Amino acid sequence: MVKICCIGAGYVGGPTMAVIALKCPTIEVAVVDISVPKILAWNSDQLPIYEPGLDEVVKQCRGKNLFFSTDVERHVSEADIIFVSVNTPTKTRGLGAGKAADLTYWESAARMIADVSKTDKIVVEKSTVPVKTAEAIEKILTHNSKGIKYQILSNPEFLAEGTAIKDLFNPDRVLIGGRETPDGLKAIQALKSVYAQWVPEERILTTNLWSAELSKLAANAFLAQRISSINAMSALCEATGADVSQVSHAVGKDTRIGPKFLNASVGFGGSCFQKDILNLIYICECNGLNEVAGYWKQVIKVNDYQKNRFVNRVVSSMFNTVSGKKIAILGFAFKKDTGDTRETPAIDVCKGLLGDKAKLSVYDPQVTEDQIQRDLSMNKFDWDHPIHLQPVSPTAAKEVSFAWDPYEATKDAHGVCILTEWDEFKTLDFQRIFKQMQKPAFVFDGRNVVDVQKLREIGFIVYSIGKPLDPWLKDMPVMA
Q: For 330-347, what is the mean pLDDT?
């Protein structure tokens, strides 16, 4: 029986291994992590991450051919194929701080593999890693090999949160990069035969190592760039009276462009987009490609600009101060159908409003109060370190409260900010919300989920990203 072990039981490792176990009943799959609470959660009824469909997949396989364990060394030494899916945070100090990936966790995983292995192994990069990581890992393993042969493969994940299980069942492509040597090609074939049990052969692409590593960064950079492009247009639409939804619909009808990722919003978030682009910028700079680095920097700049613009719009609309005013925050996750808050625009928006002394009441159907407190008290990039290494700071803000439903959150509020496009926000009883708010009552829609006309008829002053401005807002210029 082929044995697979995955080091790292996070957003990538857990779901990916669960689907491999489901689709390949003859393969034994172990997911290992040094975090005891995380493994306990994977073995319980309350999984550590929320992802539609994940629960069913785990329950079908757990205890049969899918195991979650803290016995890292035993499972690593027994495995034929080892996936490494550990954190690769952005460095916060030293060479490349703020851009380069921190490979500390990767390196210690590689050293541990070298220590405990007694048989030849295929080691698969599953984390997002900078180009040439495979080479570094290869060096660590071969210099500590004790006669054991290692083949390094790059198998980047292209999952979208909220649809990860669907993506794994039916991927656009599976990418496997390896050495173009006889042993390298054999290793590629071994991994290919795992995926081929449910993925059509023509969707499994094989490349050299560097192409696979760079394809992951490039894919995320292109997607983020599309969001920044439509968000840049949204600012122009507001200035001219155009409607960004109509513009993006017209643009998306061009088959060369297509309609996906053209929704204007308060900005992109998630664990990969910013991190991967920063990584790309760093690699470009290291290779003397400063113009290319500058191009990609602009994608992040526009994203930050969009979040600032939103905060400024809120403050300027409400007589240029939100001090002491209650503002309801509807949605904290970076997008709907996930509880993930990594790099969510909500963090910067909330911090911006708190900086002006607002009182916030936050409601999100999937994000816990603890998580929101932690996010609002953490420095940039600290979120990507394992939880036990994250700095513990005092409770984020006494000015933040948490509501169990959107109606409680909006009671007595001066304004409502919609920051995640949860479906339930489209069907809220805004008549009821209007009644219980302070007047004038404001709605700031950062995701274009509400019917602007309807809300204005109820009596709200509405700001919706990229839509023609409310007459009220035209008289309240935004301070830069």
A: 93
pLDDT at 479: 54
Q: Which two tokens stand for residue 168?
A: 């794994």
- CATH (residue range 3-199): 3.40.50.720
Give which of 350, 265, 344 is closest to 311, Cα–Cα.
Answer: 350
Please check if 275 is assigned to a binding site: yes
CA-wise closest residue to 364 among 412, 416, 410, 422: 422
Q: What is the pLDDT of residues 152-191, one digit of tens each?
A: 999 998 888 889 999 999 999 999 999 999 999 999 999 9
Q: How far apart are CA 472 and CA 131, in angstroms?
A: 50
Q: Considering the domain 221-474, what is its CATH architecture?
A: 3-Layer(aba) Sandwich (3.40)
Distances in Å between the Cα of 102 and the Cα atoms of 58, 65, 72 are 31, 33, 22
**Residue 365, pLDDT above cutoff 50:** yes
Tell me the pLDDT tens digit for each residue of 406-423. Answer: 999 999 999 999 999 999
206 appears as a binding residue in the annotation: no
Output the CA torsion sign for 189, 101, 263, 249. negative
Cis peptide before 440 (omega within 30 of 0): yes
Q: Which residue ranges does the chain devote to CATH 3.40.50.720?
A: 3-199, 221-474
pLDDT tens for residues 117-157?
999 999 999 876 666 677 788 888 888 878 899 999 999 98
Is 264 annotated to bind ligand? Answer: no
- Apex 341 CA angle, 337 and 345, nearest 5: 100
Q: Is there a catalytic annotation at residue 272? A: yes
Length of the chain: 480
Comparing CA positions, the residue from 297, 355, 332 lying closest to residue 419 is: 332
- Which candidate in 237, 272, 284, 417 is catalytic? 272
For residue 100 the two structure tokens come to 């380069």
Q: Is 309 annotated as a binding residue?
A: no
Which stretch of DSSP H or E encloses residue 81? strand 81-84
Strands (E), 233-389: 326-330, 359-363
Q: Is 254 annotated as a binding residue?
A: no
According to DSSP, residue 90 is labeled B
